[in-house]
Specification:
Radius of gyration: 30 Å
CATH topology of the largest domain: Nucleoside Triphosphate Pyrophosphohydrolase
Largest sheet: 7 strands, mixed
Strand content: 5-15%
Shape: elongated
CATH superfamily of the largest domain: Nucleoside Triphosphate Pyrophosphohydrolase
Helix content: 25-40%
Number of strands: 7
Oligomer: single chain
Number of helices: 11
Length: 363
């Protein structure tokens, strides 16, 4: 919320009203989210494409290529922008998404009562296959699936069912959309530094903004570097320090109490990140707002960090810091005592009332 308000302030108080402006000015907001907000909140005539919409459009138009490919995604957006209602784009987009969520569902869709079945190419193909099966049964020939039409052009087409995975009669309209084979997620090991600035006032923490393209584009994070599994702890700290010095432009003379405090795992759909969390205390007042490569950086309070546009993984990292570092700043006995509920042990001659006493009528 704080980051959103800062963006609005930078835009002279004007909330972005178009999909293009929302995507350009709000880090982490992609094409779907920006289009949904623009059409629903500001009535911009723009389509939306989410998983439900992909399923509906792929069946309506018999798009059998990999639904995540660039060619297919561009086609889905092209169709979506063509069919969106000019007068009520937000209502249309919501209805299309709801249609995919409740009627044109992944398994056992309600084709017989579907209001779009007369326009659905996939439904037409099901009927054609049924007629072909009936003719084969009458003629006494085999009904093996490989003998049926595959609905693929003579030339290989990125939007058609692939020749190596043709139409399956048993699936019917569920042949669409065609999902890609899942690739094994890549593992990455990342050393991340929680640098705390403590010069007598409220603690502040160094964060840096990610590039505007790629994974977690535009979000804020703690300084980090990719490392190798076989690296020693000494080398890991050396790599982190080089990054803090060269990229974050920190004077390493101000760093103390540097240590490894834990690990955090975070799984994305295509990549597994294992964060090796390090902590260091920084005592020199730092005012730099840009890194050596021109990325924004800042020292923020705990509350500023919680309000900033940071990833879930970085929130996990900060939780590890608070559990390990903040708790260790208190002695073991003091920490245990601080968690206990305090009671007044003055001897007033009265016993603590039971809960039943509160429900007894007064006399």
């Amino acid at each position: 919320m704080l980051h959103f308000l800062q963006v609005v302030q930078q835009l002279n108080g004007e909330v972005p009203r178009t999909a293009a402006e929302l995507m350009a000015n709000l880090p982490g907001v992609g094409q779907y989210t920006s289009s949904a907000i623009a059409s629903i909140a500001f009535n911009e005539v723009t389509g939306v494409v989410d998983g439900n919409v992909v399923r509906v459009l792929s069946r309506l138009r018999a798009i059998g290529g990999d639904s995540t490919s660039k060619e297919a995604v561009e086609k889905f957006w092209e169709i979506s922008n063509k069919i969106v209602d000019n007068q009520r784009p937000g209502d249309f987009n919501q209805a299309l998404m709801e249609f995919g969520a409740t009627l044109c569902v992944p398994k056992s869709p309600s084709c017989e009562i579907c209001p779009l079945k007369d326009f659905c190419v996939a439904f037409k193909q099901v009927n054609e296959q049924a007629r072909a099966t009936e003719k084969l049964l009458i003629s006494g020939k085999s009904t093996a699936e490989h003998q049926f039409t595959t609905f693929s052009d003579i030339e290989e087409c990125g939007l058609c069912l692939p020749k190596n995975a043709p139409w399956k009669n048993s699936l019917g309209v569920e042949n669409y959309p065609r999902k890609p084979q899942k690739k094994k997620a890549k593992d990455e090991l990342i050393a991340v530094s929680v640098a705390e600035l403590n010069n007598g006032s409220e603690s502040r923490y160094l964060i840096v903004q990610r590039p505007n393209k790629g994974l977690l584009a535009g979000l804020w994070e703690f300084p980090n570097v990719t490392i190798q599994k076989d690296w020693s702890e000494t080398r890991v700290i050396s790599e982190l320090n080089n990054f803090l010095k060269e990229e974050m432009i920190l004077d390493l003379d101000g760093i103390s109490n540097q240590k490894r405090i834990g690990e955090v795992n975070h799984i994305f759909s295509h990549i597994h990140h294992n964060y090796i969390v390090h902590y260091c205390c920084y005592s020199i007042v730092a005012t730099a707002t840009l890194t050596a490569t021109g990325r924004l950086c800042r020292w923020v309070s705990r509350q500023d960090f919680q309000d900033a546009a940071v990833s879930t993984a970085m929130r996990k990292v900060f939780t590890t810091y608070e559990q390990k570092v903040n708790n260790s700043k208190m002695s073991g006995s003091d920490f245990r005592e601080s968690r206990k509920r305090k009671r007044d042990h003055s001897d007033d001659g009265k016993k603590q009332a039971s809960i039943n006493a509160f429900f007894k009528p007064k006399t």
